[in-house]
Amino acid sequence: MGNKKISLVCFVTLSMTFAGVARAAESYFENFDSFQVGSNIIGQGDWTGWADDPNPDYGAPLTDQFALSGNKSLEIGGGNPGDWTDIVWQFPEVISGQYTFSAMTYIPSTSTSATNPAINFMISHPGPLVWGGEMRFFLDRGQVDYAGNAGNPVPMVRDAWVKVQLDVDLLAQQASMFYNDEPLGDFAWNGVDFVAVNLWAPAGTSPIYYDNLSLVPPVTSDLTGNGFVDFEDLTVLLANWNKDVTAADGNLVEPLITVVNFDDLTVLLADWTGPGPAGSPEAALGEAVPEPSTLLLALLATLGLSFYRRRGRRAF
After folding, report:
1. Whole-model pTM?
2. In this structure, what are the phi and psi dihedrals at residue 188, rounded to the nearest 5 degrees?
């Protein structure tokens, strides 16, 4: 058994030297901090206009009036040059499978217009233009709903950052919407793709603000997507140790907020299945590793990874 422990140490030590590691699915993030305050979002990053219209009059400005992280957010409404906002966050690749979209929204108590902004989740864009679902913000009466479940709105939260969320299973063609972690409704997703998010506000809409948009697969310790939580997933986590990366890269507890550390390792070990499929490190060693915790913690100490408590939140 001693020789096999040495082999394990060698395997994980070598695994940390690899820059490229397998990932189960793509993730996309937007916190607006790479853009200039006052600039128009259309034409920057993965942002375009509705139906790929480049007209900046229907875009949205970057502002430093409110921000959740860093010092910038995106202002929707508020009397932009074209009187309405119609912008699209187009994902670089068409996605499939299970995903969660989330964004943080800030609605000032002074935003009470009778016109109502919305988030449209797109099955197809720029053509044909096909909606998957719509979340609506009723600023005048302080409510939020899913357009297909209009009789069941939830209270709007003002003067605070609040999460909006869409969970979508493109294989089952089902989706669910949430505002402030309260369910807005479940509905059929009439397509197999999810390609974009449309932020829209009609003329005369009071401003609302968006920050920290993300589109991510479900958080899972199976980082490589091979159906096992094993040394291949540990390889991913260790390769990104002490980095502020995504959940798909091993940051399982607070992705892009704190660095990968022992909290994330604890989650992965709790989900440990081992051994992996034929050709995996466990299979090559010739036996399962049923109790990896003691071995791995000793291994990490050997590799010189210091124990520490979770660091404070990072500034984007």
Report:
1. 0.70
2. -75, 135
Cβ atoms of residues 186 and 131 within 8 Å: no
List of long-range contacts for 269-274, beta carbons under 8 Å, 24+ apart:
269/293, 269/296, 270/221, 271/220, 271/221, 271/222, 271/229, 272/221, 272/229, 272/230, 273/228, 273/229, 273/230, 274/228, 274/229, 274/230, 274/231
pLDDT band at 25 (very low <50, low <70, confident <90, very high): low
Q: Are 193 and 172 in contact (CB under 8 A)?
A: no
Distance, in Å, from the CA atom of 171 to the CA atom of 110, rounded to the nearest integer, reads 42
Check: CB of residue 215 under 8 Å from CB of residue 100. Answer: yes
28-216 to CATH, choices 2.60.120.200, 3.40.30.10, 2.40.30.10, 1.25.40.20 = 2.60.120.200
- Picking from 227, 234, 290, 292, the residue whose alpha carbon sits closest to that of residue 264 is 234
pLDDT digits (tens, 9 = 90+) for 59-109: 999 999 999 988 999 999 986 555 789 999 999 876 778 899 999 999 999
Short-list 186, 178, 180, 118, CA closest to 149: 186
* Start-to-end Cα distance in the chain: 46
Helix (H) or strand (E) run with residue 267 in it: helix 262-270
Range list for CATH 2.60.120.200 in the chain: 28-216
Give how far Cα 77 sits from Cα of 10, 121, 217, Å: 57, 18, 30
Residue 17, classed as helix, strand or coil, is coil
